[in-house]
Amino acid sequence: MLKHSTNGESENYMETTQQIELRKLAQLDVDAIELYEAAIQRISVPLLRDKLSEFRTDHEQHVVNLNAELVKTGGKAIEAKPDLKGTVLRGFTAVTSMMGDHAALLAMTANEELTNRAYEKALKIDWSSSQRELIQQNYDDEKRHLAWIKMAAKEKPWEHESQASVH
Ligand SMILES: [Fe+2]
Question: How far is the centre of ligand 1, averaged over its atoms, from the C-alpha of 147 (Å)?
Answer without folding.
Answer: 10
